[in-house]
Amino acid sequence: MSSPAALYESIRSEAGKVVVGNEDVLEGLTISLLTGGHVLLEGVPGVAKTTIANTFATTLGLTYSRIQMTPDMVPADVMGTNVYRQNTGEFELKQGPVFANLAVADEINRATPKTQSALLEAMQEGTVTIDDETLALPDPFMVVATQNPIEMEGVFELPEAQRDRFQLKYVVELPDHDDERELLDRYDRDPAFAAESVEPVVDMETLAAAQTAVNAVHVADPVKEYILEIVAKTRNTPEIQHGASPRATLGFLSTAKGRAAIHGREYVIPDDVKALGRPVLRHRLIRTTDAELSDTSIAEILDTIFEQVDPPGSDAEFTQAVSQAD
């Protein structure tokens, strides 16, 4: 099961015992796991954001922790601190929950900006500094954060610069009729079904091999130009005050390679880029005041951008061109 496609199928199949629908979210989580990114999940209460994150974490044979963010938390509650042991007369390092391969930060917008900054710095640097001592976080290290968009009191919205640290952002929507019926039937059969019923299906060796395979995925020059044109368009669209950063450009490249790999391809096609357009860009763009007043959503702006930027040929034509080049 060392191929990315087999790894993704195992995660999707096992997580599907608990998660109903939301396959795009599971796909994005797997892509970020394979490409060293972090994921932000946003949705109203009760749409299973935390369940998805915990179930995904449980399918991995790696260490994981769940951090319930609250306004009274301080950075030490997440990172850890040195604790004085009276019996030995010495200080002992007590590592915080961030020291795990996968950390689920539940309701990240309930934490204060100081605690958010500490977590996001760890995401960026891969290290934590405690009392002037710099400690490396586990490898791999991934954060899956959730947030509720409708809360107004007792929350601290992530600043734009910090949202950019997340490789992908998914909006977890309300289920459609069929998915909600499936949820009802499962709950009727077993009210206790939850992430704990899922078994680990990935180990460190398998993950490392899959990551190596993702790195080897080929990205042709026309696809790179396609990515650059999309990002440039976000910087020259009247409704956007601040467009995507170079970090978004790199995020497009790595996630497109990840998507190609989990779908069994050794090369990226334009559809990989288009499929990841919203998750890569939706949290990085800042609308102008006029766009906000006219209630023009980021999703609508992105749809327009992708309509205006022509991909390098159809996927079938591009696939044939890549095959001939090889």
From TrEMBL:
GO terms for molecular function: ATP binding; ATP hydrolysis activity. This is ATPase AAA. SUPFAM superfamilies: P-loop containing nucleoside triphosphate hydrolases. Signal peptide: none annotated. Residues 38-167 form the ATPase AAA-3 domain. Keywords: ATP-binding, Nucleotide-binding. The keyword Transmembrane does not apply. Gene3D superfamilies: Magnesium chelatase subunit I, C-Terminal domain, P-loop containing nucleotide triphosphate hydrolases. InterPro entries: ATPase_AAA-3, CbbQ/NirQ/NorQ/GpvN, ChlI/MoxR_AAA_lid, P-loop_NTPase. Residues 233-302 form the ChlI/MoxR AAA lid domain. Pfam families: AAA_3, AAA_lid_2. It comes from the Archaea.
